[in-house]
Amino acid sequence: QVQLVESGGGLVQAGGSLRLSCAASGRAFSNYVMAWFRQAPGKEREFVAAISRSGGTTDYADSVKGRFTMSRDNAKNTVYLQMNSLKPEDTAVYYCAGRFTYSSGNLYYTSADFGSWGQGTQVTVSS
Prior knowledge:
Order of helices and strands: EEEEEEEEEEE
Strand content: over 45%
Low-confidence stretches: none
Distance between the termini: 39 Å
Number of strands: 11
């Protein structure tokens, strides 16, 4: 499994922006479909965004469409989540996840589909 480390979380006011980063170790980053999940206190972990191996395909939860953008730079072994127009309900611990696959273009949306996880980074949005 690839090792993942998130960074970029913090405290922002509603309407503000944050950019999360997820740095991956190992040689085979381009063979991993990547995703972001989040978990608020008392709630289940939920899907936020996913990106294909090449970065050519992305998908987002309805709650963040139009506000969040996921991208990746395989040369830097890094994925990103640009979060704009943040709302208090976006407050959560955000996790980066990876799934190794030999196929290109596929996306995955549930926690059980991913074998590699970062430690999480806290995002808090105040009103």
